[in-house]
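Project standup — Tuesday

K.O.: blocked on the structure for the chain from last sprint. Re-posting the sequence here as requested.
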Amino acid sequence: MKRIIYMSLFLALVCICTISNAIVTNSSEYINVKVYVFYEDNNNEYNEEKQWLDENINYRKEYININENNELFKKIKKELKIGKNNTPITIVGSTYFVGFNEETKNNIKDAITAYDNADEYGDIVEKTKNNEDVKDLIKQNNQIYKQPKKTNIFLVVLIVLVLIIIILLFMKYIKSKNRRKRVRTHSRH
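H.V.: unblocked you, prediction finished:
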């Protein structure tokens, strides 16, 4: 009987941890944030990044071919002071990432989370397309990414602590119930 109870508790804990992870993962539906990827034709890193973005994260994105939008690419590079010509260049807010690898994946997620949690967020690329001045917006956006909110981690820690307390209380209840059964059994004999 104890094994069944412990297995049930273990399975409940696994399920709850999975659900809490899904809550954090699904918070990646970044409605307000738009991510731009500047790329060149026949770029393997871009193809990998595009596939990863399309499969793993749900948010607005725009893929911009630099051969077809060279003027915009030059303006963005100038405004954000991007010295490299390598692609893909991914832009979230006024944060940019050159190339694509495992570290870039994490950085993109962190930047999206930071901008999504911000009270205000300015779309640098869109404003540049409209020939608007973006210098103040870049300063504002840079403050956003430097201080991302960590509410998701707090939520997971809180859920785990509550689960541990519930499990401990349940185990204490089971022990006390078993003691009462033993006392009744011994008193009958």
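K.O.: great, moving the ticket to review. The first helix runs from residue 2 to 26. The chain has seven helices and four strands.
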